[in-house]
Design brief:
By secondary structure, the chain is α/β, with parallel strands linked by helices. 33% of the residues lie in helices and 17% in strands. The two termini are 35 Å apart.
Length: 566
């Protein structure tokens, strides 16, 4: 792997970059307009123009999808005395500015967009044309929507005139721009909104279901013997384990009076789901759990919407988009954004910490980097950035040490899911823990748990913090009881999928037993004891959409080789 990476870098370095001389003024900034040639990379462009990859990404959010041949990108023209883009309000706050000549201004220079505000609202507030406001702040929109937390530049009279005549003008930011609140700068990212559930009725009076609850479980369980192995088909035992956990939950609930008609269907192939929908058997269910994968879940969710049937996505966070416009969908796996938010909140809470953000020098995983920067908010002003390539090898050690601070906690956040990069950084940081010279806490994503090349002693010594969807505390009494019951019944230890199957059925069937078919009206006060993380559902966007579980677990790898929930 390392050899391949080195060869790729050499090949990229051989592609020449002809620096463009064409300049344009856009939104008060001056840019070179560069046409991407085949084989060029963000790294080669940054070197040719003397800018950082970070500056390229910030001015061209579309680069998160990678460079494309023939693509026009904006390269900021830097002020040679300050190495910052000309007339750039975003960087003005980091450099000393001269006191401006006092002038009377009819309007404030900037406006911080609040949640729920529209472009028309802001234009009306300041008495400016909507078109002028939009033209001056094109980067404030993502997928056509105005982003809360964005700092809008309010057009001056000159800007309004330029809009009328189709011209563009450079507007120098006033002194107030240096102290403008940019806490919620979105870096081209659309911030998800999760709304609390409405308050439950004080005196529950549910419309109870018939004596037997009709539930359908749809899992990818069987594949043809001659079928070529795929990622999915290698692990059907995981879903059998989920099923076994579900059966154990049903047995325990029967002792509390549960009456259930359970139908189990296979969804290993798309044709299985298509046949199931054509049969019409799902239309008679009170609740549907599954299918597992978003592709198969989508048509079943549509049926559930048409027939007013609750449907649960038990494992896949990618079904979140299917909750939009479908109030019958409930997603258990917490969205990635919620996990990232919890992780960064822990970093930000370390008030005196020295924060170091490490990312790929070649621009890979730019979306993850942008999301971390967005969530760090105002702390980004003091964050130390490090672009890294694994081929740099030991050379990064000296650079890392220059970023570390003695006597303070050094929070090292790596915006990468590449095991080679993480292993390289962790190995170098590990060396700094000797003689207790530096205090270091490492932060990463839950995908790191699957890494095979990272030495586990690095992660425990560096107090690795991760946010995971679910966490099992094997010291808990209810967990130990479940393990014993599962082993007694199936003669094997339960996997995480078994725990998930148990919790899913325990949660939803118990809710239906207690509150009836409209159980979602009571979820704000419903909190049964689960084996893993508790569920905390919220509306995805608004009350007309489905529900997503936003709860996750922050865990720490301790120096004594344990993992604890914080």
């Amino acid at each position: 792997m390392l050899l391949l990476a080195a060869l790729c870098v050499i090949a990229h370095a051989q592609v020449p970059v002809q620096k463009s001389t064409e300049k344009a003024r856009i939104n008060g900034k001056v840019y070179y307009i560069h046409v991407v040639q085949k084989g060029q990379t963000l790294y080669s462009l940054s070197k040719a123009y003397g800018v950082t990859i970070e500056q390229l990404m910030e001015n061209n959010p579309e680069l998160s999808d990678g460079l494309k041949e023939g693509q026009n990108i904006k390269v900021p023209v830097l002020d040679s005395s300050r190495s910052t883009p000309l007339a750039s309000p975003a960087t003005a706050s980091k450099e000393p500015t001269k006191e401006p000549v006092a002038t009377k201004q009819a309007k404030p220079a900037y406006h911080l967009v609040k949640s729920g505000e529209t472009l028309q609202d802001i234009a009306s507030k300041y008495g400016v044309p909507t078109a002028a406001l939009q033209q001056l702040n094109t980067d404030a929109f993502f997928k056509g929507k105005l982003q809360p937390g964005t700092l809008l530049q309010i057009p001056s009279a000159a800007d309004e005139k330029a809009t009328d005549t189709g011209e563009s003008s450079v507007v120098q930011p006033p002194a107030s721009a240096a102290t403008a609140d940019t806490t919620a700068a979105c870096y081209g990212m659309e911030t998800p909104v999760y709304l609390d559930l409405k308050a439950a009725p004080v005196e529950p009076s549910p419309q109870l279901l018939p004596a037997a609850i009709k539930a359908a479980l749809i899992l990818p369980l069987l594949r043809d013997m001659d079928d070529t192995l795929t990622v999915k088909s290698k692990t059907p035992e995981n879903f059998f384990s989920f099923y076994e956990g579900a059966l154990l939950a049903i047995e325990n609930l029967k002792q509390e009076g549960l009456s259930l008609e359970l139908s189990v269907y296979d969804s290993f192939y798309e044709k299985d789901v298509e046949a199931l929908l054509q049969q019409g058997t799902l239309q008679q269910q009170d609740i549907i759990i599954g299918p597992v994968y978003a592709g198969n879940f989508k048509p079943v969710a549509q049926l559930a919407k048409e027939r007013h049937i609750k449907i649960v996505s038990p494992l896949d966070p990618n079904t979140e988009e299917l909750t939009i416009g479908n109030p019958y969908v409930l997603q258990i796996s917490p969205p990635v954004y919620c996990r990232q938010k919890k992780l960064i909140e822990h970093v930000v809470a370390q008030k005196q910490a020295n924060i170091i953000l490490i990312y790929h020098e070649d621009g890979r995983e730019a979306t993850l980097l942008r999301e971390y920067k967005h969530l760090l908010g105002e702390r980004m002003d003091s964050v130390k950035m490090l672009a890294h390539q694994v081929v740099q090898g030991v050379a990064v050690r000296d650079t890392l040490e220059k970023l570390l601070v003695e006597g303070r906690m050094n929070c090292v956040l790596i915006a990468s899911n590449d095991d080679a990069l993480v292993s390289d950084i962790a190995a170098n940081l590990y060396l700094f823990t000797f003689r207790n010279r530096y205090s270091i806490t490492l932060y990463g994503t839950d995908r790191w748990r699957n890494f095979e090349t990272v030495d586990i002693k690095y992660l425990h010594t560096l107090n690795l913090h991760l946010v995971v969807p679910f966490f099992i505390d094997y010291s808990a009494e209810q967990v130990q009881k479940f393990v014993e019951e599962f082993y007694e019944k199936y003669k094997t230890d339960p996997s995480q999928y078994a725990f998930q199957g148990y919790d899913t059925f325990n949660y939803f069937l118990r809710a239906m037993m207690r509150y009836g078919e409209n159980f979602e009206d009571y979820l704000s006060v419903y909190n049964p004891q689960l084996l893993q993380t508790k569920y905390r559902f919220k509306h995805n966007g608004n009350s007309a959409n489905g529900l997503v579980n936003v709860e996750s677990c922050l865990i720490r790898y301790t120096p004594d080789y344990n993992i604890e929930k914080l």
